[in-house]
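Subject: complex prediction, re-run

Hi both,

The earlier run crashed halfway through, so I resubmitted it with identical inputs.
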Amino acid sequence: MERSEDLLTDSNLMRLVPIEEIVMESANVKTLIFKDKLSSKAEAGQFIMVWIPRVEEIPMSVMVSVNIGHAAVSVKKYGVGSTALFERNKGDLIGVRGPYGNRFRISKKFRHVLLIGGGTGLVPLLRLAVKINTLKIRCTMVIGAKTKNEVIFEDYANNFLRDTRRNVIVTTDDGSYGTKGTTVDAMLREIDNESFDCIYTCGPEKMMKKVFEISSTRSIPMQASIERYMKCGIGICGSCCINSWLVCRDGTIFGNRDLSRMSDFGTAIRDKDGQIILI
Amino acid sequence: MLASGILGISQDIFNGLYHHNIGAVVTKSISTMPMKGYPNPTIVPLGNDSYLNAVGLSNPGAVAFSREIANNKEVPLLVSIVGSSEKDFPKIISFLDSLNIAGYEINLSCPHVSKMGIEVGDDPEVVSKIIKTIKKHTHKPISVKVGIGRVDVVELAGIAIDAGADMITAINTVRAMKIDSNSMMPVLSNRIGGLSGRAIKPIGIRCVYEISKTLDVPVIGCGGAFTWEDVVEYMLAGASAVQFGSALVNRSEDFFIKVTRDLERYCEAKGLKSIGEIRGLAHRF
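This time it finished cleanly. Structure:
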């Protein structure tokens, strides 16, 4: 069956796609690969809304798929929606709409960039890594995890950056793999020794806040991908607001200038009912 | 104006909109207690600038919301309020009435939450009681938001005005549904929701035309307005103001600057001193 014309062109409409392949990344992270032309063209940092039929719909960063016309999402078992998605099998249908949101900005004039991420926060950074590889920009990538079993995407990072000068650093909090310490510790060591044109980060907000503070002090441009509770993904419900910005419409990527004016960044989120919760 | 349910929980956002020429902001509907709303999907894009939603009246509740807008200085805020019985409304108002707000919009037409919204609006006696109660507890102007329910929209508007309402907002979203052909399942978690966007504009125009032709009260047009031409159309039908909702999808606040500028150009071209001069001109026909 051919899809109707508007389902191929209007990215706002939900497309139902079967999961074609599932890759176990760790005990609680899976990558689900599916065919969808619109999602396959997502820019680094963009997200799609993923419907797990009759359970939930959740925003997910678009993961790289090496197959043409395909895209993927990497899901960590966490809440109701992500656990249901994690438990889907090959052949099960999921709905996707988007891609939505802005993208990481990068210049071909950059000589050396630093990527810092943890867990599934690495997903948009991996899509960026593919672009960095194409532009042949030197790249240092810091992958953080609590412990050895939770280290994911190290192989992907080395693979996606294969044509450029790269340094993939893994840190674990307990030192069971790679370097002992946090991603921020590794960042500090790197920026002491090298000069970077830009720092890109995605992961826990407290980590990103530290990356932001350090990069501001050292006057290094940075971009962070921010996560908030989302309903519509298209800029009308207001659920994902962070001060006067909407994460779905104005982000999810924000630079130093916006972040410096965002008092909620690293301090407050809104619950499903819109109440402010301090983090 | 900004329609209720759109972007409406953050004072930072209200301030941003105000500095982009918005005339007034209607907040999300506020209830006595916080409401988490339904699980996603709560909003389904249908194509052709039309949307289906069943958010489930998620809102932080009157207490938290009163803190949110406590420092509102300049934004003309109409706080949308919703309840399941007449007893709810004085409670909500007691937290809000001393704040700097322009008035209230009473949501009697949410099409997808049982015992709140349209089920209340479908009972003329309850509507009358609620509005009389609200008027006893506030001196601020109130607009009653009506929709397409079992009771005729003009009749309902008449009942609201007789009970003391100052204005009518017409219309709310229209009960509707989307079923996915592939998974064979309803898409909204609540199964049924409300239709908004371009698809409902002709219904909104008809309602505003009929209400304003029958009743001598200000009517705020709402439903599928996307452009300055839509504002003109609603005003020709009899609207005193027009709200935008679905039009805000992935648009920045600059949208309101553009619409107001285009309306000024229309006035110039038609030789009008103010856009208000065209209000209800279609009633002649």
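Residues 140 and 190 of chain A are 8 Å apart (CA to CA).

- K.
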